[in-house]
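In the previous chapter we treated chains in isolation. Here, by contrast, the input contains two separate entities that must be folded as one system, with a combined length of 699 residues.
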Amino acid sequence: MTDKQEPILRLRGVTKSFGPVEVLKGVDFEAYAGEVTALVGDNGAGKSTLVKCIGGTYSIDGGEYLYDGKPVTVKGPRDSSALGIEIVYQDLALADNLDIVQNMFLGRETLNKKTRTLDEAEMEHLAGEALASLSVRTVKSVRQKVSSLSGGQRQTVAIAKTVLWNSKVVILDEPTAALGVAQTAQVLDLVRRLADQGIAVILISHNMLDVLKVSDRVAALYLGRMAAQVKTSELNHTQIVELITAGRSGELGLVEATNGAAV
Amino acid sequence: MSTETVHNPSDPDVVADHEAANPAVNVTALIPQTLGGTFTSYLRRVRAGETGSVPGIIGAVALMIVFGVAQSSFLTTSNIADIVEQAAPNTILAMGLVFVLLLGEIDLSAGVVGSTAAAVAAVLSVKHGLPWELAILGAAAFGAVSGIVLGWLRSKLGIPSFVVTLSAFIAFQGVQVLVINSKSNGIQINDQVLHNLYFGRLTPSAGWILLVVSVALYALVKLAQAAQRRRRGLANEPVVVLGLRAIAMLLFGGVFVYLMNIDQAASWQQREGIHQRGVPWSSVIILGLLVVLSFVLNKTRYGRHVFAVGGNEEAARRAGIRVLSIRISVFVICSAMAAISGLVLAGQLGGANTGDGGGNTLLYAVAAAVIGGTSLMGGRGRVVDAILGGAVLAILANGVSDLIQGGNSSAYELIIDGAVLLLAAAVDSMSRKARR
C-alpha cells in the first residue's frame, strides 16, 4: 500500500503534555487532499488535544508539523487558518441572531470598494454559490436567521462556511452527534462532497457506521498513540472497535510498532 | 480530484443520483415578490416572535386614543409639540443605550454621566466663557472618556456591567456636585445655542425641505441597493413595497412637519410677532443621530461585529472579532450619547443642576429601548426602537400627569410607568419564547 499522493497535512511524533500528564505520546498523523480521514478513539485518547494542536489552540511540545511537505510552526488559530485549516467545532459557533450569510462571512465581511460599507449583495451571492457547490437543498433562504434552523441545517451552514474560504484542510468535530437519521445522512453527504472538492477532511466521530460510510482512511488513537492509520476499505466494524478499545486488532495496531508499520 | 482512490463503501445512493441529475440552483434569499406576499411574510414573522415595532406602535396609538378621549386638551397642537420636545432627552439617551443592550450589558450610570457632561459644558460656557462648540465638544469628550473607563472595567477586569455602572451611578453624582461647585446647586446657561438644543425650532419651510430631502435620499439609497442586487442576480423586494414605504414616510413625516409648523404661540403673542412653530432642533438632532448610528450598526463591519458579540460571544471570538474592543466601544458610544442627551436636558432646564440625570432617568431610557423592541438579553435591537419607545413614554408621562391630579398624582405616575416597563419586558420575554 504505497501512496502516490503526498499528504497535505502530516504530523510526525507529535507530543503534548499538560503538566505531568502526557496526552500525546508521539503521534503520527496524515491527511490527504480529496479524502475523508476519520479520526477515531475512545474518550481520553487524545482526539481533541490532537485537533487543538492542529488548529493552533495548543502548541505542540515535540515532533514535526508538516504542511504541504514543508515544516511549519502553528502558534495560534490565526496561523492555522492562514494555512487554510478550518475547524468546525461541535458547538458550531454560529450567532443565532444573524442570518446565514452574515454567519458565513462573520469576521471576514466583504466590503464595497468604493463606499467601504458591507457589500451585502456580493456576500449573499458568494454564500449562495458556496451552498450550491455542495448541492445544499435543505436551506430555504440564505437570509434566514440561524435561530430558525434545525441542527442539520446549522451543521450545513458551518461546513459550507469552510468552502467559502478556500480551506485546504477541514476538521469536523462530531458533526452528526446530535442529529437524527435523515439529517445525519444529509450531513455525511455533505462531508463527502467537501472531500470531492479536493479538500482534506478530518472527521472526528464516535459513530462507526458514519466512519465506514464516508471515510477513506481511519486513524485510530489509543491512549495518546496512533494505533493505526489504515484505508477504510481494508477494515471492518469489529476491527475499528478493537483498534479504539485495545489499540490493536490482529496484524494491525500498536504491537507491531508505534508507527503503524502494518499500513 | 479523487477519482483514482476507490471510494468505499457508500452504496449507490438514489438520492445522490437524483441530485447529480438535477444540479442545484443557487440558494438565494427568499423574498416575496408580491405586495400580499410581503404582508403575509411580515405577519408570519410577527407571529414567530419577531415582534419588532408592533407592540410599540400599538402602545403609542392606544395611549393617544385613551388620552385623546379622556382630555380635550391632549390632542391639541401645542400639547403634541410639547410631547415631541419632552421626548428628546430620554430618546437620545435610549439610542445610545441600544448599543450597550445589544451586547446584553447595561449602563446604569448613563443618565448621571450625561448630566455631569452637561455640567462640564455649562462650566466651560459660563465660567470659562468658551463658545458653545467647545462646550459641547468638552461634554462629548467627558462622556467618551467615562465610557472608556466603564468599558475597560467591564471587559478587562471582568466586573459585571451592573456592578460597574451602579458604582459609577453613585460616584458620578458626587463628581457632578464637584463640577457644578456652586452654592445654588446649579449653573444657569446663557448661551442661546445651548438653550436651543431643546427649545430651538426650524423655520417652517426648512422643515418641509428636510422632510423631502430625507425621503428622497432614503428612496435613492434603497434603489441603489436594489440595482446592486439585481446586477448580482439576487432577488429583490418588489418596487411597490419600496414605494409604499417611501409614501408612508412622506405621509407620517408630512403630518409631523405640518403639526409642528402650526403656530403654538397664544394669539396675543402672535399679534406682537412672537411665533412658536417649526420642527424642533431636538427632532433634527434625533434624526441625524438615527441615520448615523443606524448606518454604523447595519452597514459597517463594526456594527455587524456588535451584533455578533451580542448573539454569541464565543462565535465572535472564534471568527477573529476583538470582543474586548467591541465591548469597550459600546460603553463609549453610550456615554457619548448620554452627554448629548444631558446637553438637551440642560437646555430644557436652562442649566446644569445637581441631581439632574439621577433618579429614574436612566431607567426610563432602558424602558424606551425595550418598549421599542430592543431585547434586554442582547443580540437584538435597532436604534429606531429608542425613538418609538421614547415617544410612547413621553405620551404616557404627558397624558398621565394631566389626567391624574391631586396630592398623590406623582405616586400614580410612578406606578403606571413601572407597570408599562414591566409590560414591555413581558412582551420581550414572550416573543423570545415564541422564537424558540
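The first strand of chain B starts at residue 186 and ends at 188. The first helix of chain B runs from residue 14 to 21. Compare these points with the single-chain example from earlier in the chapter.
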